[in-house]
User: Fold this.
Amino acid sequence: MENKSNTSEIRIDVTRQTPEELALATRQSQLIFKFNHTMPGTEEYDRLMHEIFPTLGQSSHINTPVTAVRPHMVSIGKNVVIMPGCLMMAAGGISIDDGAMIAANVQLISNNHDLYERHIITCKPVRIGKNAWIGAGATILPGVTIGENAVVGAGSIVTRDVEADTIVAGNPARFIKRIPQHPECAAMPDPDEELQQLGLDSCGD
Assistant:
């Protein structure tokens, strides 16, 4: 049962869940188990992926194995890639915006335990901004927002918000540098000059 009197934090007493909440949790656990044991690239895999994560955006893909608690509270945009081993503790809500990349073994944790009443979990949302890149093995803790185009280094523990267009790394994660604006495409060479054709245009596409 949820207490929303504090808008910045949700507190949930896990010993007082309703029969409907418990039934949903059991159903979701069973679906995730089945998903993790289904052949990738099949219609069943795709169906289970969308059943577990009903807001999954167009052209987004989740690689198994995945662990998720309350996956109905995970919002995933378009063109998102989530690599194997992702853990999503979603009681506080997790949102992953368009184009974000989540590397292997990333942990997105939106809830914690009260220090004194351990049966109560304290929940704050985790937000991954558009085109953000979360490196392998990184952990994003409750209440953290990762800004657009930001990069979180592999193995980092992120305890506070990350600004857009920045790189952070470490435990706890610290600012490393700002990502410079992407350069314009190189000018095309003079057609009369000799050119070794590599099959790529000037932007490397």
